[in-house]
């Protein structure tokens, strides 16, 4: 990891915002690289291997969703989408496309810093020592050592956040994991009441892993309490 707190790639076409983020993040111990369009973002991400990417959706040459799809073709680097779009559908689309978090403009610097730290922490701890190498559940194979998931023999691409949630549930081996426990472990202690995060991410995981997402067999909700993974 470069920089005292990590290396951030900021992608936005607003020069004032890029300058403000560069100054503020460097003052807080981050190394900062910037890009002003989608093509530059993809090229720079491959070149500098950042610890986290802050990505605006409204870019001049291509939509931010296209950049996300391009990144997820080869990288699991945490991505925080930064956008003036407040529509819930845009947030869900961004998360489904591979984003790890979504911050709406205007935003507070302290909030963005907290989310950056949480994203970098998730990315850095995405591959802990496994308790069991492979867990099988129907058509799903969760490779805890290789930090990957197969469904019907095909690899399913998960973001670091999705993997963090799934791994926590799989390691619990059928036991209930509370909402607060998941939020605290994956996002950090300041997010333990953000239960709406979990609903969005569990819905995304079910779309990727379950045969019938509306009637899941493996990723089970215990209403008001938490979640469990059943083989």
TrEMBL record:
Q: What SMART domains is this protein classified in?
A: REC (SM00448), Trans_reg_C (SM00862)
Domain OmpR/PhoB-type: residue ranges: 132-231
| Keywords on record | Cytoplasm, DNA-binding, Phosphoprotein, Transcription, Transcription regulation, Two-component regulatory system
Give GO cellular component annotations, separated by semicolons: cytosol; protein-DNA complex
Task: Please report the stretch or stretches of sequence annotated as the Response regulatory domain.
Answer: 7-120
**DNA-binding region ranges:** 132-231
Q: Which Pfam families match?
A: Response_reg, Trans_reg_C
**Can the keyword Cytoplasm be found in this entry's annotation?**
yes
Subcellular location per UniProt equals: Cytoplasm
Q: Which GO terms describe its molecular function?
A: cis-regulatory region sequence-specific DNA binding; identical protein binding; phosphorelay response regulator activity
Entries under InterPro entries matching the protein: CheY-like_superfamily, OmpR/PhoB-type_DNA-bd, Sig_transdc_resp-reg_receiver, WalR-like, WH-like_DNA-bd_sf
Name positions with the PTM 4-aspartylphosphate. 56
GO BP field: positive regulation of DNA-templated transcription
Give the protein's recorded name: DNA-binding response regulator
Species for this entry: Gordonia spumicola
- Gene that specifies this protein: kdpE
């Amino acid at each position: 990891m470069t920089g005292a707190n990590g290396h951030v790639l900021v992608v936005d076409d607003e020069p004032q915002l890029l300058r403000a983020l560069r100054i503020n993040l460097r003052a807080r111990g981050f190394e900062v690289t910037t890009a002003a369009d989608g093509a530059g973002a993809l090229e720079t991400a491959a070149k500098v291997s950042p610890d986290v990417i802050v990505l605006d959706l409204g870019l001049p040459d291509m939509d931010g969703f296209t950049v996300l799809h391009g990144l997820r073709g080869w990288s699991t680097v945490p991505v925080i989408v930064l956008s003036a779009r407040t529509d819930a559908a845009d947030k869900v689309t961004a998360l489904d496309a591979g984003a790890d978090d979504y911050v709406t403009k205007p935003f507070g610097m302290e909030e963005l810093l907290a989310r950056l730290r949480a994203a970098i922490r998730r990315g850095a701890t995405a591959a802990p020592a496994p308790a069991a190498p492979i867990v099988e559940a129907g058509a799903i194979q969760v490779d805890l050592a290789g930090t990957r998931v197969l469904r019907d023999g095909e690899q399913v691409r998960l973001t670091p956040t999705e993997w963090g949630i799934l791994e926590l549930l799989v390691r619990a081996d059928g036991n209930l994991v509370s909402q607060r426990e998941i939020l605290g472990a994956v996002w950090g202690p300041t997010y333990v009441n953000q239960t709406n995060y979990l609903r969005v991410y569990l819905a995304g995981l079910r779309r990727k892993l379950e045969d019938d997402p509306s009637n899941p067999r493996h990723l089970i909700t215990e209403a008001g309490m938490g979640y469990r993974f059943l083989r």
